[in-house]
Design brief:
Helix content: 25-40%
Order of helices and strands: EHEHEHEEEHEH
Strand order of the largest sheet: 1-3-2-5-6
Shape: globular
Number of strands: 7
Radius of gyration: 14 Å
Distance between the termini: 6 Å
Structural class: alpha/beta
Length: about 150
């Protein structure tokens, strides 16, 4: 059974490994508060989450400026979009390239056919900070989907 999620999921980096370990296709969007390109990307993500419901998880990590997170995922700009499947990154976009480029990359993620042209868009330089992490108001996969439901795809 595939997860039936028709909106971007706001989560933390702490659960990304668990999600990636399922092998389920995912678009992971790293953003920061106050980032205009990130804010203008949200309606596009809403549309794509509905369009690819049941086929791709669309995840938002709202505070990519945590230093350990920026270092681990090699983030230097926000938004940064990772297209992942089978526990690995298959494509990366820096910035907000618009819906058509994101759709092409999602189709590539699902089909494995010809890789779309590289895409970039408006973005902000990430200023990473190191310190305590806050994890309130975010999605925890087992709480929403139940244990094991992500693995059955």
């Amino acid at each position: 059974m595939r997860p039936a999620l028709d909106a971007p999921i706001r989560t933390t980096a702490a659960v990304i490994d668990e999600i990636l370990a399922t092998g389920y296709p995912a678009l992971i969007v790293f953003e920061t508060p106050g980032c205009e390109p990130c804010q203008s990307l949200r309606p596009v993500l809403d549309q794509l989450a509905r369009e690819f419901q049941g086929r791709v998880l669309v995840l938002r990590v709202p505070d990519a400026s945590e230093g350990w997170l920026a270092a681990r995922y090699h983030l230097s700009f926000v938004p940064t979009l990772l297209f992942c499947r089978d526990a690995g990154e298959h494509a990366r976009i820096k910035g907000n390239p618009g819906g058509a480029a994101l759709r092409a990359h999602l189709e590539y993620l699902l089909s494995g056919n010809e890789r779309p042209d590289p895409a970039e868009g408006p973005r902000h330089t990430l200023e990473a900070r190191f310190g305590a992490r806050a994890h309130h108001g975010v999605w925890q996969p087992r709480a929403l989907l139940g244990a094991g439901s992500l693995a059955a795809h």
